[in-house]
TrEMBL record, chains A, B:
Residues 300-458 form the Acyl-CoA oxidase C-alpha1 domain. Belongs to the acyl-CoA oxidase family. InterPro entries: ACOX_C_alpha1, Acyl-CoA_ox_N, Acyl-CoA_Oxase/DH_mid-dom, Acyl-CoA_Oxase/DH_mid-dom_sf, Acyl-CoA_oxidase, Acyl-CoA_oxidase_C, AcylCo_DH-like_C, AcylCoA_DH/ox_N_sf. Residues 37-158 form the Acyl-coenzyme A oxidase N-terminal domain. Keywords: FAD, Fatty acid metabolism, Flavoprotein, Lipid metabolism, Oxidoreductase, Peroxisome. FAD binds at T164, G203. Its main location: other. This is Acyl-coenzyme A oxidase. It comes from Paraglomus brasilianum. SUPFAM superfamilies: Acyl-CoA dehydrogenase C-terminal domain-like, Acyl-CoA dehydrogenase NM domain-like.
Amino acid sequence: MSSEEIARKRLNAIQQQLTRSTGPADLSRERANASFDVNQMKTFFAGGKEFSEAMDDAYRFIQRDPELYLGDEYIFDASVTEQREATMRQLRRYVEVRDMLKSSLLVRAFHDAMCQYSEAFSMRLYVHEILFPQALRLFGTSEQYSEWIDDLLSWRIIGCFAMTELGYSSFLRGLETTATFDKKADEFIINSPSILSTKWWVGMAGETATHTIVLAQTVVDGKKCGIDWFVVPLRSRKTGRLVAGVAAGNIGTKYGRNGLDNGWIQFSGIRIPRTNMMMRWASVSPDGKYHPSPNPALSYAPLIGERLEVIRATISTASRALTIACRYGCVRRQGANNEQIMDFQSYYVQLMPGIAGLYVANIIDRITGSKWNKLVDNVDDGTLFLNNIADIHGISAGLKSIYGWWGVDILEFCRRSLGGHAYSSYNAIGEFIQDFSPITTGGGDNYTLMNQAAKYVLGSLKMASNGIKLEGSVAYLNNIQEALSRSNSSMASENEILDLNFITGALAWLSIRKAKAIETTLSGGGVAVWNDNIVHLIKLAEIHTHHYILSEYHNDLVEYGSTEYKDLLPMLTQMGQLWGTYVMQSLLELFLEEGYFSPSQAKMVKKVFYDLCRKTRKEVIPLVDAWAVPDFILKAPLGRYDGDIYPAYFNRVRNTPGCVGVPSYWSKYIKPMTDPDS
Amino acid sequence: MSSEEIARKRLNAIQQQLTRSTGPADLSRERANASFDVNQMKTFFAGGKEFSEAMDDAYRFIQRDPELYLGDEYIFDASVTEQREATMRQLRRYVEVRDMLKSSLLVRAFHDAMCQYSEAFSMRLYVHEILFPQALRLFGTSEQYSEWIDDLLSWRIIGCFAMTELGYSSFLRGLETTATFDKKADEFIINSPSILSTKWWVGMAGETATHTIVLAQTVVDGKKCGIDWFVVPLRSRKTGRLVAGVAAGNIGTKYGRNGLDNGWIQFSGIRIPRTNMMMRWASVSPDGKYHPSPNPALSYAPLIGERLEVIRATISTASRALTIACRYGCVRRQGANNEQIMDFQSYYVQLMPGIAGLYVANIIDRITGSKWNKLVDNVDDGTLFLNNIADIHGISAGLKSIYGWWGVDILEFCRRSLGGHAYSSYNAIGEFIQDFSPITTGGGDNYTLMNQAAKYVLGSLKMASNGIKLEGSVAYLNNIQEALSRSNSSMASENEILDLNFITGALAWLSIRKAKAIETTLSGGGVAVWNDNIVHLIKLAEIHTHHYILSEYHNDLVEYGSTEYKDLLPMLTQMGQLWGTYVMQSLLELFLEEGYFSPSQAKMVKKVFYDLCRKTRKEVIPLVDAWAVPDFILKAPLGRYDGDIYPAYFNRVRNTPGCVGVPSYWSKYIKPMTDPDS
């Protein structure tokens, strides 16, 4: 035992005597288990030393600034109105602070830290600074983009994004809002013909936005010619009152993100100049001629970016929930031997793959995000954009659904991991669940997206069958003949399972087999047959997407061997193995059903998975520490870095206004019963 | 086509033209699909004609009474304080109304309807009228019970149930609160020695209760001798102020049930008479002699009733969520052919087993509830009670976990089924999720309970192996030798799968196999080996409990053949088949891994399950209609009985105070940005 270890043990012993709280000692013992440099991992996870330090600065800035910081006593007891006001207060301050900051790195860190701090803030900012401008960029000409962008970035106008209608969401061709061209006036008339056509869920439309970009049916000479985007004013910049011809308001109290003013909009014949139609792809000329887009699916392109954002949202939320659950799991003790509950298999078998999944997702987010950003930056090269849009659309649809659903699962598991204590709002996980869950149905419903991803795989398979060489996420389908000729796995030892090539190979095999079987089932059938096989289609999209995730992660890992991160490789490899075996064991039923694995091989896969969970459990605290989420962002006393959770939790409750005292309704409703004779 | 059908078609066509809302026509068409008498099914589900009519009366009463009815405009926008007050207002009124009602049937219906209307009301009432009195009944002598019960039932005192501590929940032996006997004074001194020993989550302790029944370590002559129950005063019945020696307060804002005042309690040496110790099983005599309980596990007995209540809670909540989701699914249209989304396999494959599961649960609730009530009613016959406690404990542990987890899954699926619209609080499902989810960790954490259920199965298996004949839920283990000698299923046709005997037989086989395998793994190992196999133990408890559910359901069905419900048998049998195949396909991986099913048999099971889902989907609306939940209890415009959902939803939003208008923070935070020069 080293002298340092002896000192630590003594310190722990004293600490335990003094406070009866074993938490701090537990966590410091857990921290000593790290096989890797936690600071280096923190740097890696953040994407570089400079950015990691900038994040630290940004966190510090937020916690100090009284207009940004929400205050412990406030956040979970605030009314909807108070939350709205606080979020807008943060936004205004955010714009001021950003203008002050000189370093673009610091601006980005400040942005990321604030978004992690508040989902409502994050969505408000996203709508205005990403969704609206990206739509301008993708659908407007360069001139149109220039016309609006300065006012937007300075917040002289506030934008929102009006796509979904009350009666139509994922099926955009059903949209009812019309933009009718009036040639004489050189204007479009925007109209909502029914209740169902009311624009719905539009973030910032409830109270804030001065302008919106609207998706509508373009009508020329009484004929619907296409679905296009139009910029329409909503409110006076001076007074906040609605422009004539626009009705808009709040959607009201929501299951999550109540600081965001989701709203509805009804247009009643408001007129806008013809040039407010975004004309990069489709256009209407002054003489009333409609020039269609080369690819009508382009209208949905902004959603690709939104969908890829779900990866980051999952990392942001799940990393907080997992940090809280894992620290609590190492401090909480229960059972005959007073065990740490983290040592129960039911806990670590769920929490460890969660952690591994986030390490993998972090890489996937970087890789896929940069693919998309490259396309957006080069949108003026129409060919490049159009050639790549199908693959990135397929990828984004699959990733959004996989990570959205998985995020909900992880959060629910973290909730259960706190025993009853997630029932208290002050332990934050309840709010995480509410803020995150709508992701599975918003921005393209996951079921619909998985259908689209499956359609893309099936279409690609057909091309591959016809000998066309595929690129991108579907390239593995080029091996269709080899896969169809192989009927089972020759895997004979546990070691083989740890090879990521083995796992991606198995997933590729399963995807091809499943796709081929579905192709046969669907052939000749119409929409009804498709509808009766959606469960299988979703499964196909799931396998395909998992293949993409693991292949990309694996390819990326190889590159770190020669960088400053090479010492992290063993742990990063373990994370890939854990995630890979987690995915494989979740698909075991299919592997068995298709005869790829024998029962004994299946048991082997499971054993390797469980073993990896137990093995990595030892480093659970270093692994979550490396995400470096400060306590004030976690918002949960049970997730405290120092492990001294109980006094903090009790004080949080005790200091809440209204904690003690006779309730206002005592004399009205209780006393008449308990003291009937007085 | 019959003339009735022609008339209906014409009516539908006209209706569609007038309103553009196809919902009413869709639902009436769906209703015409019923192969059974919906009213008869309603009667059956309610448990009889008289009670079904009493429920209708009770619903009407509630909706008319302004102190009971919450009002559409109110419920989802109320603050925590407003919710607390409204719930207590309802409680006071409830007591008055109950005293007025003459029929005990109507009282029960009124109770059930109110509990369905508000979870917070339900829990407040449950704590006071069931949890506290049942503890008195189970642990107090008859004299002690008589001493308190009148004051309790008349609400002259208000009770709560103080078991869980901040640091200890499922592991009760770890509890720290002490009840120290002072022989001279013939009193107990109740003390909370640390922060961790603070009683936590106690419903009604936050603001309301005047008395509590406390689980504490009994200390006599400086020695801890057992864990017993003590009645302790908390607040003045006249003023609501805390009794000296008691600190108590609110736990604060929660993830759900905010109308309930969950609280914390710290005892600082408060003295109670010796006779406030509940002395049915254990007792302390005036001379300071401790007489231990014949079975220390008896202390947890009240939780058995609480756990069985989870079945009813699942039915209550899931029936509402499923009604909303299924009606919406039949009204909402999407896709190229404007399909009802209910026709998408991804929907009906999740919603139909949910419906079947509730029909099954309804029977299980009745059967198991009456087993438990019989024991409680005969508690004075100590032998009967002690002989049956182990089996009912095992059953309740399994059922509580299975239904709790499954309920969360169903609610989450219903949330997703509303597309984005569950994001609006006004569609109720968000609140259902919050109100229900804590069930999985409260009243005995599900993981802990499943460990206990598995332990019971393993212990029973050992007895069966030694030739002891078992009764109750584990009786199937008597066939251990036959099961171990059979290595796979001979099932050859889809028809065999529809036989519930086949399904229960397969579950029994799997349970025995799994139990035997676990027994081998655990043998000789200590706590650490147990902890590393919890996932398998939980799976065992799950299979065992599913076997109980399906066997009991099957046995019960047989009896209806000769009753007034015989015409319902075909549908009730289908519900059993659908639930049975749902359970079996969810366990396919294990059946394949153990070699019980071959890959082709497994595919057959799945096919039968999917076919049943599609077949029963035709009657989805009649099946949920039979639960007869009125619109005002559903609280969700999207779940309206008449299907005219969109205007109701829009009006609900539009009529909420604050829906439109310039927000209070405009001039403070927005105008300075949008109108910087003014």
